[in-house]
Amino acid sequence: MLKWIQLALLAGLSLGVSNIALSKGEATPLISVEGYTITDYDIERVIVSSPLADQYPTLNEKDQAAMRGAILMRLVNMQLLYLEAINQEMDRDPAFIADREAFIKGITYKLYMDRLRASIKIPDKVMSALLSRLKGNSGALDASIAQYKSQQYKLVRSLALKKIREQLHLSVHEERITPAITPKTILAEADNYIVSFSDLGVELEGKDDFHAATIEERLYQKLEIDLVNMVSGDISDGLKNTIDAFSRERLPAMLLMKKENEWAPDRVAARAYFEQHRELGFIPEQRMISQIVLDSREKAEATRKRILAGESFFRMAKLHSIDPYGRKNAGQMGWLTKGKAMPAIEQVLENMKEEEISEIAETEKGFHLILLQEIKPSIQHEYEEVYDRVRQAITDEYLPPFVRSLQHKYKIEFADPVAEIPVERP
């Protein structure tokens, strides 16, 4: 997967982020990129929506500051990529326009269905009967209410769609879904609306690829979304911020796809790069570990003796580890790449065998006991097995200078609280 995809996810630009400590009205401006302001609220959204949200509060002040600084610069770079995509008129690219229209259709459809769901009310008689029958059992009452609303939603939705089909005079030609189907075959018609087989995005390389049920399912999915949009009208004005957020994700992604194809135009170029960097095919040894962290050597020694005497390592981690993440997960830390741990831990792991308990390792975090659960030996892969990694490595090499050129091209202004944060320029 491309790094920019991970970046887009980390940047928290998707909709629906909740439980944010700051409100948008309290946001403090941090950096302006060609007039577009990035605030501490934006950083908060990233943290809350990222996979690291649970671990962030456990970090010390220095690590939290480093994480926030890295996120800030990533947000800056995303905006730079967006500006460059606009500069290259990628917002006029037919592929982007099609993606944007599909996104708007999807949001419009969702809002319509949300309104239907919100319109469902439980009649007083039904509610009274439920309260009487399930008195004192709040869990069962909630489940019954949810089940009733779900059943009513299915009915209301079915009736609403039937009404739309009748209103727009929809005709569906299922009988035309045969192995003889062509891209121009018309499968459905309504007022000022036609759906041909080519509109479904289904590609048939031969008769063996023909599956009538799949085509029919795709047809009705498209009809449902399109017809709901037709009766909903244009609501894009009310979705301006939502659509803008989509564009700010999609356009940088498209720009980086374009640049990646310039940096590695074909497999020949990618293979040549791999032959010069064969380490890209090397997968280091992996170790599955669990750990207990204690605040003194005496406690660590006592805990080690108890484990060697037969007590559960995982139970001891859950009860006594001072590492919040480890305590929450009964000490289980997952896979660790050889050479990536702190030196003291690497030293004790070096000669350990599977299912062995380590000697005490002292670090700035405390006194560690390590359980080495499993070892995956190192592997050397060949080019075809690591093609995606090679493409990523090429991107990693060429992307930083490209971003630095954008930092030089577009105006970046820092607010006083972060004026000391450096921006790399060529």
Give the name of the CATH architecture of the largest domain. Answer: Orthogonal Bundle
Rg is 29 Å
Shape, principal axes of CA atoms: extended
Contiguous low-pLDDT stretches (5 residues minimum) are 1-20
Order of helical and strand elements: HEEHHHHHEEEHHHEEHHHEHEEEEHE
Strand content: 5-15%
Average pLDDT works out at 88
Number of strands: 13
Helix content: 40-55%
Protein name: peptidylprolyl isomerase
Enzyme class: isomerase
InterPro entries: PPIase_dom_sf (IPR046357), PPIase_PpiC (IPR000297), PrsA_foldase (IPR050245), Trigger_fact/SurA_dom_sf (IPR027304)
Pfam families: Rotamase
Describe what this molecule looks like in 3D.
This protein folds into three domains: 182 residues, Triger factor/SurA peptide-binding fold; 138 residues, no CATH class; 93 residues, Chitinase A, domain 3. It is an alpha+beta fold. It contains 14 helices and 13 strands. It is extended. The two termini are 28 Å apart. Helix content is 52%, strand content 14%. Strands 7, 8, 9, 10 and 11 form a five-stranded antiparallel β-sheet that branches. This is peptidylprolyl isomerase. It comes from Candidatus Thiopontia autotrophica. Keywords: Isomerase, Rotamase, Signal. It is an enzyme of class 5 (isomerase). InterPro entries: PPIase_dom_sf, PPIase_PpiC, PrsA_foldase, Trigger_fact/SurA_dom_sf.
Write the SSE topology.
Elements: H1 3-10, E1 29-33, E2 36-39, H2 40-49, H3 61-87, H4 94-118, H5 124-133, H6 138-167, E3 171-172, E4 186-190, E5 193-196, H7 212-232, H8 240-263, H9 267-276, E6 282-283, E7 286-294, H10 297-308, H11 313-320, H12 324-328, E8 332-337, H13 343-349, E9 356-357, E10 361-363, E11 366-376, E12 379-380, H14 387-409, E13 412-414
Antiparallel strand pairs: 1-2, 1-13, 3-4, 4-5, 6-12, 7-8, 7-11, 9-11, 10-11
Enzyme class: isomerase
Family: Belongs to the PpiC/parvulin rotamase family.
Domain PpiC: 284-374
